[in-house]
From TrEMBL:
Its EC number is 3.2.1.21. GO terms for biological process: carbohydrate metabolic process. It is an enzyme of class 3 (hydrolase). Residues 596-689 form the Fibronectin type III-like domain. It comes from the Bacteria. This is Glycosyl hydrolase family 3, N-terminal domain protein.
Amino acid sequence: MELEDLSVAEKAAMLSGGSEWDSRGNDRAGIPSFVMSDGPHGVRRQLGEGDHLGLGASKPATCFPTAGTVASSWDPELAEEMGEALGREAHDLDVNVLLGPGLNIKRNPLCGRNFEYYSEDPIVAGRMAAGLIRGIQSNGVSACPKHFAVNSQELRRQASNSVVDERTMREIYLTAFEIAVREAAPMTIMTSYNEINGVYAHENKHLLQDILRDEWGFDGMVVSDWGGSNSAVAAVKAGGSLEMPSPGYTSVRELEGAVAAGTLSEADLNARAAEVAKIARLTRTEGVGRDDLLANDIAAAHHNVARRVAEGSAVLLKNAGAGIAAADATAAATAPVLPLKPGTRVAVVGDMAKTPRFQGSGSSKVNATREENILDELHNPETAEQTGVTVTGYAQGYDRQGVANQSLLNEATALASQPDTDAVIAVVGLDERSESEGLDRSTMAIPQVQNDLVAALVATGKPVVVVLVAGSPVELPWFDDVAAVLYVGLSGQAGASATVRALTGQVNPSGHLAETWPLQYADCPSAGWYPAVGRDAVYREGPFVGYRYYETAEVPVRFPFGYGLSYSTFTYSNLTADETGVQFTVTNDSDVPGATVAQLYVSGPSRTVADATAGSADSAKSAVAADARPGVLRPVRELKGFAKIELDAHESKTVHIDFDRYTFRHFDVDVNRWATESGIWTLAVGANAEDLPLSTPFAVAGDVDAAPANPALGHYLTGDVKHVTDAEMATLFGHEVIAPGKPTTFGVNDPISSWVDSRGFVARTVAKTLISREAKVRQKTGAPDLNTLFILNMPPRAMSKMTQGMVDSAMVDAIVSIGNGHTFRGLGGLIAGYFRNQSANKRIAKELNHD
């Protein structure tokens, strides 16, 4: 039987889940159900019915470094190798669709889920994701990039409206997805929870049809985030294929009714059902799943892959004079502390050195096949034999939950002060409460007890090497005082051995930061309005995200975008450009083999000074009157290409970075198309956004002439987004942006957390109790209460999507009445609605079973 021959109810049933992780198949049409699983950095194949927040047990799988860490490798081929291993494990665990990678742009460093996302830049995010997707899908498993789109905060994540201008959305927030779709052809894509300019992502025709399918050529399945579907009918019309998890038969009834009423065409229903059927038929894994992943060579091989990824992603942030094992005082003062020299005796300090943190909290949490810790890896006799580095002792140093403990501090400083200790390795960073799905960070600081520890260790006079564990930027008040800092991110289950290999010189660090690290949180462009506490999250900063802001507004930073040191030194020379791209030479001037990341930045006509100084690297920052700049509004420079280059000692290589469709384009909102400005551009090449020793002017023959930017953009013209006026923002957005005040009544899309302002005692009590419970659990366990956070962020309409049919839309309306203070009316409607819903579900079940 063909798909089109199925009944309307049967086709509608295919468009929602059959359980927490399974789709609904159709035996009559030969369409099997398929299994989905979280897995951006490790397969989380849950046992039984499971849950979507990472709370339940799952089968063991390799925990690879998180996306925020992998991005620091700037190596799509390495990401592809990781993807191949991920896809193999998904295949062997009977998973058809692996939910990842995360592609959202890091708009602000406090987003609790930044560790799952690649970068603040869409070129890096898109290229790294494309590599991972190609690797996953080489196993016949579908990758599922997420969360499409403009999803930048966890607070109110299911009830937030991202208000963003069209050009910024296209150039910053959608380009990474575009690259992934065009270069890697993912079979599936996941929509985000939020609305975009007032329309939920899973029913946003502009995103799902106009852009994703018509412009980019995507021909796969669009699945909602779990509970992220709003209206099943609106989703099918707009291009949403599958809503997850199981809403029971509620959506089936709604779709069947809409077709009968003529408000939904059966052609749209057929198109969505065909997209689901295509995934079911392309990703067959029956009979492959097995429980002996740990009993064969795959686990060991994939652990080694995880180590290689961690090694390629570690970023050396500082490496100053240490005074260790040098022949004289002058040499001791200038010799870098890393790599640790043979004979060095180190004290190991820090709770995370013994009890590792290598992944974030939430739906991506993996039951790792193995765990390592830095202390054991340094104690390993083989390591000591190979490196000559020995351990003088270990001290916990700080309380994991941030409670001040003077005895732990004293123990650590005593160990560091011992005569037989040459240097101290201090492992510090963010704890488990800080980075999680469902919860944004409240500060960019690491716990104060850890800062106090580092200061006390520095005061001993011994060189302090900090190993920094965190999935996103943190403030470093002690940076100037320590000898070295190695940033390992959230480095996966093999991160400890990778870290020790980098510290001891068995590996030469080659990672570069894929996001800017500000000196302090107040310097961030969106610090004044992030996260949005109300319904509307207004992207007031426009395109000035990350380095695009810091470089344009000339705000000093701790580390610029693309920054990373090495045990080698590199120079750049011989830059040339033609219509195909740029070519230049990179030389390793040192005696140590190593790798670096060459980066290409472009400055458009509005940022290029058309005079004799146009070729200098700093010319793009030259002060030019806003009304004299030819060309549309742009940041001072933008990354458009990169290459990871490995070089032997004193080796030189010629590098070519190609131009492509993304190099010179901008989105012209007036004519609703991509355009390229004619004029003189500046091309610059170097090791990070501020270190660009090579540059050249380059004439671009585009399809539009460069004209001065609109002076009404005011502060946007200089990147000074913190002083943008409402009128200037209205010019950028093309309309006035008015954020609504607090609601006086609550609707189906207002989160449960907003009920704290309800006039009804019961509703207020529910919200306050949940808020109090989450805070107590977090304080007691040291980890966020993800279930409670999900409920607080959840709007009532999600109840009809997350309860496997126990709640329908009529019952949701009754629950909203309770939220608005009409407790008894709401309870009566809820009880009556329950029985009506049960009866309707039985009717649909009977129809689908052809009884």
